[in-house]
Structures are given as structure tokens and as C-alpha cells.
Write a structure and sequence with these properties.
- With 495 residues, the chain is α/β, with parallel strands linked by helices.
- Helices cover 33% and strands 17% of the residues.
- The protein is built from 13 helices and 17 strands.
- The strands form 3 sheets. Strands 1, 2, 4, 5, 7, 8, 9, 10, 11, 16 and 17 form an 11-stranded mixed sheet that branches. A 4-stranded parallel sheet has the order 13-14-12-15, with helices on both faces.
- The longest helix is centred in the middle third of the chain and has 20 residues.
């Protein structure tokens, strides 16, 4: 993705341990840029809204549950329209690109970017980049207007097409410069946002008046800092259908076992929330919580116990769970896809075979297992009402930030308020389920499943979390100036 030097983060320190992790601005490297009155002041839809414009000094706290004596901690610049903008409407030439895997809501974000630019700011030149990053230099562009995108939110997928990889920084920025594009909106996961960061750095190095705005996309909800990612609510809702089908199949036959594999490479949020919402699940397995098969207290032992009690059971497994248990011969040996993601083995088929094999040996207990994998059905559906509203807010926040001259940022809700977040903050770590928090305890109480963790495992997990919090208190700075959270609402579990 290139080897350009990454600019130093913009850090502002204030009283009582206040730290602002600010985002870049065009004026950081292009001085004396002219400003213009925001055209929203003359827009009849917005001119009647009191206090519509955001104060330039407004910030959003990363954490809101703190000790009374702890520092105020990290803040991000609040998203929203500013009274002055750095682009005139007829000057703007925007483009939109979608990268990585599919996710419910992609078309909604595209639609709202186009309609927001057109109706709020009078922008008429908007291009869709066809086929991901490589589309900048290897594919045709698609002119986008409100008429073209009017009903795309009713469809799954992305009308722009998508792909993994294909990131050639010089070619991409050359294309942006040659086409006269000055606003770039990039939709994708952490790998895509890393690519967006490199594109911004090259644009900054060339001194171009071009804004790069990221909109984080991951169905797994594993983007750090933000409350949740778009498409997640839809994925959890659709997963209910698969779980319900597994439950119907399981309870309709003697010793029925319904096994459902859901998305979650490294983070088990979909599996956890779908399980909690369903109430029909007897066991949920996620990447963050190790489990074992054989012996007392193992998965096989629990399945046998549950079948004797209820006559049926439902198991939900996230795709990244149990990878350490799969035989070396079945592993992908570190292979990666075009986006750099490790290729995982199919834990669903593997676990299905293992369960069947185990109970085949137990001649006194015959089971009937049904395996359901709804992965691509969930990814391909349109977003639900909740996600449609959320996608609209994301798109509008990104537009307001771009028009105000902010660049090199991704946008998302932090504690319920939309904020502009530096790329580095959402690409340095992944959001994961914390199995020593109360939300996971609620799941264990709901399913009555064992934790599959020994007391030693739990002690080590608790010690790791305590050490992490201690480090934050002892030496907070640019990256770790955060207040201590007193309950389950950590950065990893804000939903």
C-alpha cells in the first residue's frame, strides 16, 4: 500500500487530563485557503433549525463512565455542519468507492452521500468508482445523481461493485488528480481504512486540495472506537431466521441438534447478540472464548447433558471460533486473501463432523444434526429501518466534514454522538467481545452453557484487563489518554 511517511497525529492537551485526538485539515498543508458561507444557511429544509451548526470547539468523549478522580481522557472532534466551508458547490467533484466484502447498508450510504451532496450543498459532479480500489485506474466510472440512486437502498450489495486488494497508491492518486476529483469517500473495513490513510498521506505530500473521508464498514462490528458499524443490526435480525429454522428442525425430531454458523472472524458480536435476542440457543461459541470438545465439562459432555434434559438443542458458532482446535492438516497454513485477512477453516462443517463422529461411537445415543450456514444470505440483504437511518447519519456527517475542510478521517458514533476520528484510531486494534464483562455473563446465564474456561483462564483474562487499565492511568498520552471504565461499557462493549 505504499511506504510514505505517516504524518504526526494532531494532539491537543487541555486541563484535567483532557486530550483531543484531532483530525487533519486542508489548511494544515495548504495555507490561506478561502472560506465560504455554508449554503445550508439558505436551504429551506435547514435554515429553520435552531443551532444547526456545530461549534468548532465541540468534542465527543471516548468514554463516559469514569472514576471521579480520573483524567477527562480522549476526545474526538464532533461531526456536523460548520458555518464556513472550504468548497464552493460548483467546485466540488466527488467520488465514492466501496471495498472489501458485502454488508447490508452499502447502497444506503451511497444513496445518502449522493443525495446529501446534491440537495444540501448543491453538488452536481459525483462519480462512482467501479470495483473497489483498482477501479480508480482499471475500470470505468459511474456518474451518480439522485435519480440514479433513488431506490438502491431497497437492494442488497453495492451498485458500484467491490473487490479486495488492488491498492496501488500512486495510480489511485494519479487518477484522482487527473480527473480533478477533490472529495473522496471510501467505504470499507479496517484494511480499506488503512488504504484510505495511505491515499491521504500521498495527497498531502503532493499538496492537493483533496479531502479523503472514510466510512467504516464491517458486518462483524469489529471496528474500534465507534459504538457499532452499519449493517450489524440487520445482520443480527436476519440471523434470527436461521436460528429459528435450526430450532424448529431440532425440536421436531428425537435428539435433534441445530448448528448455525454466523459471521465473526475475530469478533463474536453477531453470534452473541443473535443468541441473546433469540433465547432458543443452548450454546454460543465465539473466537474470544476458547472451548474444548472432549472430557468432563467439554462441549460433547454439555451436548449430551442438554439432549437428556430437553431432547433437542441449538448451537451457534462464529466463523472464527475453534480455529486452534482444527487439525494442522486442515488449516490454511497462514494463507491470506487479497485484503490481507487470514483464510479461516470452515468451523461449521468441522464441528458438525466432530459432533456426529463422537455420538456415532455412543451407540446408546443417536443424534440428528442439521447444519445451517446463512453467511451470504445475511451479507446480501438490504439494511433494515434502524440501519437505514444510521447510514443516513454517517453519510451526512462525512459530507459535512469534507465540506468543512477536514480530511484523513473516518466518521462514526462515539457514545451516541457522531465524531471525526483519525484513521489510526480505527486501524490499530479490533473491537472484540470481552468475556470478563457482564454482557458475556448475561449470555452464559441465558443459555446455561458452561464458560469452558478454567479458573486459571479467567484469572489470566481478568489480570490482563486490569493491567491494561493500570497502564492507561499511569502514563496516558497521545494514544492511551483514556479514563477508566467501571462496568461493562468499555470500548469493546458499547452496544
Amino acid at each position: 500500500m505504499g511506504s510514505f511517511a505517516i504524518s504526526d497525529p494532531k494532539i491537543v492537551h487541555g486541563e484535567a487530563g483532557y486530550v483531543l485526538e484531532d483530525v487533519p485539515h486542508l489548511t494544515d498543508y495548504i495555507p490561506d485557503l478561502p472560506t465560504y458561507l455554508n449554503p445550508l444557511q439558505n436551504n429551506p429544509a435547514y435554515s429553520v433549525v435552531k443551532q444547526y451548526f456545530v461549534n468548532t470547539d465541540d468534542t465527543v468523549a471516548q468514554k463516559i463512565v469514569v472514576h471521579k478522580s480520573s483524567p477527562r481522557g480522549t476526545h474526538f472532534r464532533r461531526a456536523g455542519p460548520r458555518q464556513k466551508v472550504y468548497f464552493e458547490s460548483d467546485e466540488v467533484h466527488a467520488c465514492i468507492v466501496t471495498c472489501g466484502g458485502l454488508c447490508p447498508g452499502l447502497n444506503t450510504v451511497i444513496r445518502e452521500l449522493v443525495c446529501g451532496l446534491h440537495h444540501m450543498y448543491g453538488v452536481r459532479r459525483i462519480l462512482g468508482i467501479d470495483g473497489g480500489y483498482r477501479g480508480f485506474y482499471a475500470r470505468n466510472t459511474i456518474p451518480l445523481t439522485p435519480k440514479v440512486v433513488s431506490d438502491i437502498h431497497k437492494r442488497g450489495g453495492t451498485i458500484l461493485g467491490t473487490s479486495r486488494g488492488g491498492h496501488d497508491t500512486s495510480k489511485i492518486v494519479d487518477s484522482i488528480q487527473d480527473r480533478g476529483i477533490n472529495q473522496v469517500y471510501i467505504l470499507g473495513g479496517d484494511g480499506t481504512q488503512k488504504g484510505a490513510s495511505v491515499i491521504f498521506e500521498e495527497i498531502r505530500r503532493r499538496g492537493l486540495k483533496v479531502v479523503v473521508a472514510g466510512i467504516p464498514k464491517t458486518i462483524d462490528n469489529d471496528i474500534a472506537v465507534i459504538d457499532k458499524s452499519f449493517g450489524f443490526d440487520t445482520a443480527v435480525e436476519e440471523a434470527q431466521r436461521a436460528i429459528n429454522a435450526a430450532h424448529v428442525e431440532a425440536e421436531s425430531i428425537e435428539n435433534g441438534v441445530g448448528l448455525v454458523k454466523l459471521m465473526g472472524r475475530y469478533s463474536g458480536f453477531i453470534a452473541m447478540y443473535a443468541t441473546l435476542a433469540s433465547r432458543d440457543v443452548d450454546c454460543c461459541l465465539i473466537p474470544e472464548s476458547p472451548f474444548y470438545l472432549e472430557g468432563k465439562g467439554g462441549l460433547f459432555d454439555y451436548i449430551e447433558k442438554r439432549l437428556k434434559e430437553n431432547g433437542h438443542m441449538v448451537i451457534v458458532v462464529a466463523e472464527g471460533a475453534g480455529q486452534d482446535l482444527i487439525d494442522e492438516s486442515m488449516r490454511s497454513m497462514g494463507n491470506q486473501d487479497a485484503s490481507g485477512n487470514k483464510q479461516l477453516n470452515d468451523v461449521g462443517h468441522w464441528l458438525s463432523d466432530k459432533i456426529k463422529e463422537h455420538f456415532t461411537k455412543k451407540q446408546k445415543m443417536v443424534i440428528n444434526l442439521k447444519y445451517i450456514d446463512p453467511t451470504y444470505m445475511i451479507r446480501a440483504i438490504p439494511s433494515n429501518a434502524s440501519d437505514n437511518v444510521y447510514c443516513t447519519l454517517l453519510a451526512h456527517s462525512a459530507i459535512h466534514g469534507a465540506m468543512a475542510g477536514y480530511t484523513g478521517f473516518t466518521v462514526g458514533p462515539v457514545n451516541g454522538r457522531h465524531a471525526y476520528i483519525p484513521f489510526c484510531c480505527v486501524t490499530e486494534a479490533q473491537n472484540k467481545v470481552v468475556i470478563t464483562d457482564r454482557m458475556w455473563a448475561r449470555l452464559l446465564a441465558s443459555t446455561n452453557q458452561p464458560s469452558f474456561l478454567s479458573s486459571k483462564d479467567l484469572a489470566e483474562e481478568k489480570k490482563l484487563n486490569e493491567e491494561s487499565h493500570t497502564q492507561l492511568l499511569e502514563g496516558y498520552g497521545a494514544k492511551d489518554a483514556e479514563t477508566v471504565v467501571t462496568d461493562e461499557n468499555t470500548v469493546y462493549n458499547k452496544l
